[in-house]
């Protein structure tokens, strides 16, 4: 059994990660911006709070979101500083499909017809990964290879790692399996990967 800190536990990806980790018998500290319903209050942009919350944990799953592009700069820097201070090296980050390579190596955000209105948001996610890459953390970023399946939220119990494809779908519950797998059996290191429902 591991002690896992899940940051962003009120969101759909974070909530699914908490449920999956507890399903497997792990001890979970669930963190959100405000405390209620069993959630612990914490600010992912505050390295001091991150260090305090992460102390004594084996790994951190961060499923955080904010519409502002500077948020990811602050959050990634705080995670690096806080986790290094706490002595926690394993970080599993919920990433973004847009910055993943497709089968031919083209980033999904650079493929024809891909929406460009949020490009600054895509690049902010990439900047966060650049911050992790310059650190001592053993990090991995896991994203849907395309998008989350909102119409079918079923937990199939399986997934596969695949290049980015805008048509690929995965449920939050199945992505959570991938997240917790990378805590239990770290397979991918210092990289970003995409996951898809295994029957697609």
Describe the 3D structure.
The chain is α/β, with parallel strands linked by helices and 200 residues long. The protein contains five helices and ten strands. The chain has a single domain (3-197), classed as NAD(P)-binding Rossmann-like Domain (Rossmann fold). The strands form two sheets. The chain has an eight-stranded mixed β-sheet, sandwiched between helices. Strand 1 (3-7), helix 1 (12-23) and strand 2 form a beta-alpha-beta unit. The longest helix is centred in the middle third of the chain and has 18 residues, at 69-86.
What's this entry about, in short?
Helix content is 33%, strand content 22%. The chain is built from five helices and ten strands. An eight-stranded mixed sheet has the order 3-2-1-4-5-6-10-8, sandwiched between helices. The chain has a two-stranded parallel sheet with strand order 7-9.
Record field, number of beta strands: 10
Radius of gyration: 16 Å
Task: Determine the structural class based on helices, strands and strand pairing.
Answer: alpha/beta
The low-confidence runs, each spanning 5 or more residues with pLDDT under 50, are: none
Mean pLDDT: 95
What's the CATH superfamily, by name?
NAD(P)-binding Rossmann-like Domain
Between the first and last Cα atoms, what is the distance in angstroms?
32 Å
Please work out how many helical segments DSSP would assign: 5
Biggest beta sheet attributes: 8 strands, mixed
Strand content: 15-25%
* Order of strands, widest sheet: 3-2-1-4-5-6-10-8
Q: Which CATH-level-2 architecture?
A: 3-Layer(aba) Sandwich
User: How much helix is in the residues?
Assistant: 25-40%
So what's the CATH class?
Alpha Beta
The fold-level CATH name is Rossmann fold
Shape: globular
